[in-house]
Amino acid sequence: MEIADSALELIGNTPLVRLPKIGAGLPGDLIAKLDFTNPGGSSKDRPAVTMIDAAEEAGLLKPGGTIIEPTSGNTGVGLAIVAAQRGYKTIFVMTDKVSPEKVDLLKAYGSEVVVCPVAVPPEDPESYYSTAERLVAETPGAYRPNQYDNPHNPRAHYETTGPEIWRQTDGKITHFVAGAGTGGTISGVAKYLKEQNPDIQIIAADPEGSVYSGGSGRPYLVEGVGEDFWPSTYSPDLVDRTIAVPDLDSFLMARRVTQEEGIFIGGSGGTAVQAALQVATEAKPGDLVMVFIPDSGRGYLSKVFNDEWLGNFGFLTAEGPIVRDVLESKKNGVDDLIYVFPELTARKAIAVMRENGVSQLPVAKGEMPLAEAEVMGSVSELRLMELAFEDPSILDRTVEEVMDTKLATIGIGQPLNRVVSMLETCPAVVVLDGGRPRHVISRTDVLTFLSPASDIDQI
Question: Is 33 a catalytic residue?
């Protein structure tokens, strides 16, 4: 009987499948490796086992210990499966960028989950890296695999994924395309494949804004891929090319593959397929382009596959008058987002409002383009006036000390009636375009759009 003794024995040997509709008319073959068929639903099952095996052999993880790791979800699931089999506790640290179903999934495995803000640098005490380190220091018997600096992460793919690909394609693969998060998958596979044939091209599919494609690490919304620092598990010397993919292209491709091919993939899979399609378009007849699909779309139902979420972040456009129409009708065109830094004084914030003829401003840290998560709050003339009336020294305090809650947000392609409804209870709304805060729309802006100056002149 073909019966595995545990779920761990089911990891690996994931299938290949052609993408006949996405790849129609291409000179070569476009093939996908579906690593979401692993028992934990992602490619991260592979390094999870390898890293824990190595930790046990080195005496770093002992019976009854606790595994602690920062994760976007998939590595956590892989580690949780290993922990369930071997009797370890698990604590996972996640950013507030990840979908809620990923948090719930880890809790379903019996793991403790700590959620941290995404809009802070890695060295910040509140970052998920720093939080994980603190928890390790505070927890007796704790072990952190540290997938970003653990050589057994790429080793797992060198020993399993690479050989599988070579065997499954009979050595005919010419291009391998994969996202780079920790870099473990692409580095491990690249090392093995290039040992077999140095001419095989390795292409990293990267979210636009990630460091791998020349960005600062912000802002982008695709989960589980890209980075804001360079992990030691990534081997740039093995990567021949990096293709930056905007969030919108990633999300739309994930939906397209799901609907046209019947293969349910996540946002990072969409990133990889979008890059692979570009590579395959440029390929020669007879080339075999393989795209690595790390996980399925089941962890992204509330985001990538949710029209309301996409619309609110400015990725979809409704019919009829929309928010973009209001912005484009402004006398001086669409203004860039005006905001103030949290360390600025309230007095200077007032000066910025006066200089720009506005009565409220978002408060955000970071340079443009911002991520929505980097918007911390807001300041308004009315609120500052009320505070200063009670205590004039308030004006010399930092904006962070006196700011209000964040302004509401709306996607640039959302219907006009939606923003009108929102402005009934708030003076202004931040407009998101492609997931990024780009403008502020006020009641005056909408009123001007509805009653142009030419109409008023005729009265």
Answer: no
